[in-house]
Amino acid sequence: MESPVRVESQLTDKGYVPVYTTAVVEQPWDSYTDTDHAVWAQLFERQKRILPGLACDEFIAALDAMEMTPDRIPKFADLNPILHAATGWELIGVEGLLPELTFFEHLAQRRFPVTWWIRKPEQMDYLAEPDLFHDLFGHVPLLMNPVFADYMAAYGRGGVKAHGIGTDALVNLTRLYWYTVEFGLIRQGKSGQKDDLRIYGSGIVSSKGESIHCLHSDAPNRIGFDLERIMRTRYRIDTYQKTYFVIDSFEQLMDATGPDFAPIYGRLATQESIPAGDVLETDAVYHRGTGEGWLADGDV
Ligand code: PHE
Ligand code: FE
């Protein structure tokens, strides 16, 4: 393992320029400052307070099972035995973003890369790249769920394969990650009725503003999960999502993504991408967004 370095991506006049590193590092726990621990405490308590009733039951249950607490930044070494016993996953420390293939290979081996550094106090509500709070609080709890844990490993294997196929396949697969792992909603409800929508996406649960926006705002679309539709849909990296996709269950996600994607990539290669905010006639619409506050351009 190498010594940790805080790598910051740059905001330049050409926009956001990410920096990629491959190093796996020991979490430099002793070097966290009081401010770092205080930032963790504030973010953790804020999300714990608002997420009941918004986040899915599996997420809330896993947060408790993992024994993450607000008083100090968790040690990966303390979380790993719990996580490993539940689903065979392990956390590894990284500087920040990884090259795609490296990331996929880790996932396929059930290693989840967690950025070791935490945001500054002035970045409580937004930062342009993943930090420890997003990676640990956002992604790790659902890795305690056996079905979701299998989905993430299958995604890693699928990523290695897509990487060998080409750039277009990777674009399609990345959209799937974005609209499920990062920004997914799930149907859930009292007494098995499944009439409420809840959050499971890590990009949402780690954001106070989007946790409320995705479920309670009239602006965004909320649409039933459809694999190929999602793989054609562009997305936002700089604003709340214009569209969220809703799964019925993690089993549905696992089943839908089980088949070989190679023929799907072939089919999608000849189709136009779909703008982030569009609603199609074939969509199962839970809510048609008003589009309030949307920017006209900037979908990626
Ligand atoms: N079945 C996919 C493939 O053949 C693998 C995969 C599984 C991708 C789950 C994403 C999520 O590529
Ligand atoms: Fe993420």
Automatic annotation (TrEMBL):
<keyword id="KW-0503">Monooxygenase</keyword>
<feature type="binding site">
    <location>
        <position position="134"/>
    </location>
    <ligand>
        <name>Fe cation</name>
    </ligand>
</feature>
<dbReference type="Pfam" id="PF00351">
    <property type="entry name" value="Biopterin_H"/>
</dbReference>
<dbReference type="InterPro" id="IPR001273">
    <property type="entry name" value="ArAA_hydroxylase"/>
</dbReference>
<dbReference type="InterPro" id="IPR036329">
    <property type="entry name" value="Aro-AA_hydroxylase_C_sf"/>
</dbReference>
<keyword id="KW-0560">Oxidoreductase</keyword>
<feature type="binding site">
    <location>
        <position position="139"/>
    </location>
    <ligand>
        <name>Fe cation</name>
    </ligand>
</feature>
<dbReference type="InterPro" id="IPR019774">
    <property type="entry name" value="Aromatic-AA_hydroxylase_C"/>
</dbReference>
<keyword id="KW-0408">Iron</keyword>
<keyword id="KW-0585">Phenylalanine catabolism</keyword>
<comment type="similarity">
    <text>Belongs to the biopterin-dependent aromatic amino acid hydroxylase family.</text>
</comment>
<dbReference type="InterPro" id="IPR036951">
    <property type="entry name" value="ArAA_hydroxylase_sf"/>
</dbReference>
<dbReference type="GO" id="GO:0006559">
    <property type="term" value="P:L-phenylalanine catabolic process"/>
</dbReference>
<feature type="domain" description="Biopterin-dependent aromatic amino acid hydroxylase family profile">
    <location>
        <begin position="1"/>
        <end position="300"/>
    </location>
</feature>
<dbReference type="GO" id="GO:0004505">
    <property type="term" value="F:phenylalanine 4-monooxygenase activity"/>
</dbReference>
<dbReference type="InterPro" id="IPR005960">
    <property type="entry name" value="Phe-4-hydroxylase_mono"/>
</dbReference>
<dbReference type="InterPro" id="IPR018301">
    <property type="entry name" value="ArAA_hydroxylase_Fe/CU_BS"/>
</dbReference>
<feature type="binding site">
    <location>
        <position position="182"/>
    </location>
    <ligand>
        <name>Fe cation</name>
    </ligand>
</feature>
<keyword id="KW-0479">Metal-binding</keyword>
<protein>
    <recommendedName>
        <fullName>Phenylalanine-4-hydroxylase</fullName>
        <ecNumber>1.14.16.1</ecNumber>
    </recommendedName>
</protein>
<dbReference type="GO" id="GO:0005506">
    <property type="term" value="F:iron ion binding"/>
</dbReference>
<comment type="pathway">
    <text>Amino-acid degradation; L-phenylalanine degradation; acetoacetate and fumarate from L-phenylalanine: step 1/6.</text>
</comment>
